[in-house]
Amino acid sequence: MSKEIVDVQNVGMKYQSLNGEINALEDISFSVKKGEFVSIVGPSGCGKSTLLSVISGLIKPTHGKVFIDGEEVTKTSHKVGYMLQKDYLFEWRTIYQNVILGLEIRKILTPENREHALELLKTYGLYEFKDKYPNQLSGGMRQRAALIRTLAVKPEILLLDEAFSALDYQTRLAVTEDIYSIIKNEGKTAIMVTHDIAESISMSDRVIVLTRRPAVIKSIHSIEFADCPNRTPLKCRDAPNFRQYFNTIWRELDVHV
Amino acid sequence: MYMYKIDESLSPERKAFLKKVRAQKIATWIIRGLILILIFVFWEIAASLKLIDPFVTSQPSRMIRTFLNLYREGKLFLHIGVTLIETVAGFVIGTILGTFIAIILWWSDFTSRVLEPYLVVLNSLPKVALGPIFIIWIGAGPYAIIVMALAISLIVTILEVLNAFIHTDEDKIKLVKTFGANRLQVFLKVVFPSNIPAMINALKVNVGLSWVGVITGEFLVSKAGLGYLIVYGGQVFQMDLVMTSVIILAAAAALMYQGVVWIQKRLVGQNEVQKQY
After folding, report:
1. Predicted ipTM?
2. N or C: which terminus of chain A carries fewer CB neighbours within 10 A?
3. How near does any CA of chain B get to the CA of A74, in Å?
4. Which residue range(s) make up the domain with A17?
């Protein structure tokens, strides 16, 4: 935990359409250190996902800049891996073929990279399923396959865009635990967008709270569980100060039904 | 057709269920066959008893005779062959060209927007009206007939395939873009493979339309083919010839449709079966 690997500087985003202009983000600045796990929470529709797309280089911000490892982001960076809301495994490809999709697209399907992908499948218990099709796997296994697909291109930073929201609650807790340990094990930096306050607290070193649209940063919370060594998302949920973090962030989100 | 063997290790309830399914399947096939046989038997008897006039309605026995005559004269396979080649040509060219044009339209939003009204007008125009134009431009012969089949199937193919391409899951496209995919890669990795089932469905529609096009074309201008036989038989009031040709046509069209269904099973069946775990 030393160097700042992601640096977001004064990012603003306005969407244009025939019906008018949507001011999604306004002057967002923060940075993320190597190996850190940062969550971004905010009211639904506040532009959280837009922020991730900007960081990944999928869309250009109207204002501001994003730096990854000191380099300005102009197109999708090879240092970034993206995980979407669903696994989006292609049903016409086997698990192995899905996992090497990123390698194919980046034209880096070298023997070493293939070997690395197979190693990941082995390490995370999917090797024997590598020739199966996605619909033969459970939701949790699919999510793991999706993560391996992201890891196969050896990103340094993982962006998780509501990555577990398509799963049912029990699976979601298990998958969170699973994915968290994989991310820590691989020593990756992660930025996660979620609307689930508990999920954000349980996984993150810091939680960034955004306001309603146009989103600005309302507060940043450092999450520390003193009496929880070897923390995992599930253990965190039992920590005494978990509730306090939850209540603080809940109040800040200022949810009205 | 399958499930004829029932595994002895299954539970009695399961066996009873499988037996019921099997019995239903067999009954369906028997009734189907009976209906067909009964129609022809009644037709034959009614015509023999002069309840209906075989000169107008023809008669199965006379149709068989006509069929054998055509075969003996060596014309049977000529006519079937001509129509079949025209249909397959129209079908294959229509599918390939239609898919190709759909790819171009998917690729360029601007081209697609510019051409949209033209496609709409061409789609709603009854293509038969273009028949005389094709004949004058291309000449009275099989090429005009193939173009006729193309005219009928092409626009539908373009619209169907383009529609499928446009409705590709945006998030799957986003996924490959996060890996830095360019437009060609988006097409090759996501849009095309994810729409193979949709394209095969377009093929099924296309088979039917190609037959319509070819028979229409043969009605307008031809010296051979099943459409020619039907029109010729009608003009000289030989209902035996007309009815025989229609039956052959029905059989040929059904076979070709089954062929596409077979291809569909080979290409997407594997995944479809696995979905029903």
Report:
1. 0.85
2. C
3. 12
4. 1-74+189-247
